[in-house]
Task: inverse folding
């Protein structure tokens, strides 16, 4: 495995920033919109459609769709075991936004958990973003399974 080039690393850092910011903005917007909507206690689709009438909810959903696309791009360039811990800093920022923008109370125990997440992010950032080869061979098992199923189907057709 070759070491990462500085260009590759910069692009990954930019994607990481986009993933984190879109996650934070999307979830905080969605949370704000749902606070405006109130608790949904029924399974009625109408209640969820009413939630979509709130602009903050719509903004949250749209930004989270952008988060998904940017997350897919990042996962195509880096290992899952790198992406998820590094982008977990978004959870720290979401908690801070919840506290200071949405006025949520955060207990000392929850702050401790948030600090643990932040520490884990720092550790994960020090590792390479990709430790596996970029070209992966498909596993042999599904092909063997498919051949076995085809053989069974041929056998059944001959017996009927």
Result:
């Amino acid at each position: 495995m070759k070491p990462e080039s500085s260009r590759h690393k910069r692009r990954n850092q930019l994607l990481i920033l986009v993933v984190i910011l879109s996650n934070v903005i999307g979830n905080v917007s969605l949370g704000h919109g749902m606070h405006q909507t109130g608790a949904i206690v029924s399974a009625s689709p109408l209640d969820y459609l009413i939630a979509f009438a709130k602009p903050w909810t719509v903004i949250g959903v749209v930004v989270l769709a952008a988060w998904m696309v940017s997350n897919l791009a990042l996962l195509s360039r880096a290992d899952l075991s790198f992406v998820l811990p590094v982008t977990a800093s978004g959870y720290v920022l979401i908690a801070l936004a919840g506290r200071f923008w949405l006025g949520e109370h955060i207990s000392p125990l929850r702050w401790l958990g948030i600090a643990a997440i932040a520490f884990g992010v720092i550790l994960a950032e020090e590792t390479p973003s990709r430790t596996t080869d970029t070209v992966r061979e498909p596993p042999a098992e599904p092909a063997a399974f498919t051949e076995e199923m085809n053989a069974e189907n041929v056998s059944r057709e001959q017996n009927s």
